[in-house]
Amino acid sequence: MTRVLIVTDAWKPQVNGVVHSLEAVAREAAKLGAEMAFCTPEGFRTFGLPGYSEIRLAPAFPRAVAARIDAADADHVHIATEGPLGLAARRVCVSRDMPFTTSYHTRFPEYLHARTRFPMRWTYAALRRFHNAGAGVMTSTTSLAAELRALGFRRTLLWSRGVDHDLFRPRPSTLDLPRPIFLYAGRVAIEKNLEAFLSLELPGSKVVVGDGPARPGLQAAFPAAHFLGMQKGEALARIYASSDVFVFPSRTDTFGIVLLEAMASGLPVAAFPVQGPLDVVTPETGVLSNDLRAACLAALDLAPEAARTQALRFTWANSARQFLDNLKIARAGWRSAEERELFGDRQVVEAR
Fold first, then answer.
1. pLDDT at site 125
2. CA–CA separation, 277 and 158 (whole Å)
3. Rounded to the nearest 5°, which phi and psi values hold at 287?
4. How far is CA 113 from CA 16, 84, 170, 190, 214, in A?
5. Same domain for 54 and 145?
């Protein structure tokens, strides 16, 4: 059985795409003969991320992470995040000349710039150095891979995502609100560009599911919107199925698993024509436009069945299989430190 150690700064009780993806892939990987262990902030002293206290970071020393790596006795190390644990794991792997892979989940340069105006080129330089030390960096879409390669990232590998089609499915409505119902689900934070949705003049009702640091301000500024807070499982699935259009105002997401959850529930999508929606939404399943209001209204005319059919193409089983295949490709393309110096660290693994 293949043993994989996943090092991730993002972990429960956080509710986000990184945690959801890792948990889902671990479950499916077990069915494919692979065992995934995790090195997470659990067991380390943590602190809350400023401005986002529910995110706990563990500033662990490399020797502590090295002990976790040794205890896992894994065949491969995958570093999922670029936080303190990811940095420590990278340092350990590099010092041991141990092949490892990474994944690019989050647009930290854009997020940091939105919050602090910190120059994105500096953050991208740091991320490029982080990921290029590995045997491959996994991206959720081919368009993201192309963008990262243009920025100097090497050895990109495609790792798509899935959705639970049994949980997220069309079902009778349980929301007693004026229709049509326009829904957003996800983190309520500045980088999600929620104001672009909430400020629209739309008929019916606007519903926001999720929590985050921007919620108090947005709830005060848009009292007509319905903020339902964090929802999970069946409760979340019922809200999806009770709505009419899923509105995705973010311009900075790398994928957006919520897009798949919404479409699996029979919801057409309204979004900007940016990465994430462009990779998942088709003309039959959503409307992508820089005029978000027009997209919302036009999406009302789309067939729910088409959205569901598109979502059925994305499964966690395929995602897990792709992830494990990437590990084989990355290890096959790995060069020792001496070879990388001799050959100038030329690109040896490319996106499929």
1. 94
2. 17
3. -125, 120
4. 20, 20, 38, 11, 16
5. yes
Amino acid making up residue 87: L
Q: How many domains does the chain have?
A: 2
Span 250-266, pLDDT tens digits: 998 889 899 999 999 99
In a domain, 38, yes or no: yes
Cis bond upstream, residue 13 (ω within 30): yes
β-bridge mates for residue 139, sequence order:
158
Q: Which domain holds residue 150?
A: 2-162+317-343
Strand ranges inside the chain, DSSP E: 2-7, 34-39, 47-49, 52-57, 76-79, 100-103, 136-139, 156-158, 181-185, 205-209, 226-229, 245-248, 269-271, 286-288
Q: How many CB atoms lie within 10 A of CB 164?
A: 16
Give the pLDDT confidence of 43-77 residue by residue, as tens digits: 999 887 766 666 788 888 999 999 999 999 999 99
Same domain, 82 and 195: no
Statement to judge: residues 327 and 292 lie in one domain: no
**CB-based contacts of 67, cutoff 8 Å, min separation 6:** none
For residue 130, which amino acid is it? F
The pLDDT confidence band at residue 350, using thresholds 50, 70 and 90, is: very low
CA-CA-CA-CA torsion sign (218, 222, 223, 227)? negative
CATH assignment at residue 244: 3.40.50.2000
How confident is the model over 301-342, as pLDDT tens digits? 999 999 999 999 999 999 999 999 999 999 998 866 555 555
